Amino acid sequence: MAHTHDHSGHDHGAGHVQGSSDKKRVLIAACLTAGFMVAEALGGLFTGSLALLADAGHMLADAIALGLAWYAFHLAGRPATGQLTYGFGRIKTLVAYTNGIAIFVIALWIVYEAWNRLLTPAPVLGGPMLGVAILGLLVNIGSFLVLHGGDRDNLNMRGAILHVLGDLLGSAAAIVAALVILATGWTPIDPILSVLVSLLILSTAWSLMRAAAHVLLEGVPPSLDRDLIARDIQAVVKGVREVHHMHIWSIDGTSSMATLHACLNEGVDAHQAVSAIKKRLASEHGISHATVEPEFGHCADDGDGHDHKHGHDAVPHHGHYH
């Protein structure tokens, strides 16, 4: 079966330029984060501030995560191999999912530490804490601005932005805590704000993990509706009687792929029908790569258990849609 690739060259070129830009952005953010993380950790130990230590903990994990994100972009540029026929694009999604798990672990650790601090309050040096927190905020704003100009549809980039956003919120919370301690001497504000920041980060980490898991499980991209696309092909492409065994998925959350069986009317030119289906998928639905199996009469997979195996995830026969 021939595949039409006439439309993909430009997309690949544009994607490569965007990917190269994102790769540089992530590397700059990783260097900024790693550089200040040491200073913030020392500041947290010196001042006794959990908010600063929590933010330094975030920044340590984020420096590692941003480094992994950079490496994922680096690997994604490699060509496909005989063993990895789709290439390395999904590594970015895998790193995004791993980043989400890392954020969860860090946030839970901060909540645990905050609980201990509330039970046994510790002295906090508000003045030095404020100075370190302000510097941290400036560094995190710089990292966020660098990443913000990247491709936010890319799950790996979203993971990187999420990490830096968590650091930014952590620094802001540390500033507020330092101001309250300086004004009132009330130290419990330090662990309380640390917990609030952790809860905010947990909710965003969850959404990132869900999106990455959906890609890893080869779910239909959220912007597409498989059954509507199948009906569209049946209605628009001449000679197509029925579409079934249709699967749509994404390698990296940006480019979509599909496989399907097209049951054709007798006398229809199979090559023309397949070509028309592929053009329709590319132009109207943004599916850049499709494998289409043309059929006349009965489905080639009928009678071998294939239908029963895939009944829940393939478009049913005879036009009965869920």
From TrEMBL:
Regions crossing the membrane: 26-46, 52-73, 94-112, 124-147, 159-186, 192-209
Gene3D superfamilies in alphabetical order: Cation efflux protein transmembrane domain
Cation efflux protein cytoplasmic domain: residues covered: 221-294
Domain Cation efflux protein transmembrane: 26-217
Region feature (Disordered): 297-322
Biased composition (Basic and acidic residues): 297-316
UniProt topology in membrane: Multi-pass membrane protein
Swiss-Prot/TrEMBL keywords: Ion transport, Membrane, Transmembrane, Transmembrane helix, Transport, Zinc, Zinc transport
Cellular compartment(s): Membrane
Keyword Nucleus among UniProt keywords: no
Keyword Zinc-finger in annotation: no
Family: Belongs to the cation diffusion facilitator (CDF) transporter (TC 2.A.4) family. SLC30A subfamily.
Protein's name in the database: Cation diffusion facilitator family transporter
Source organism per UniProt: Mesorhizobium salmacidum
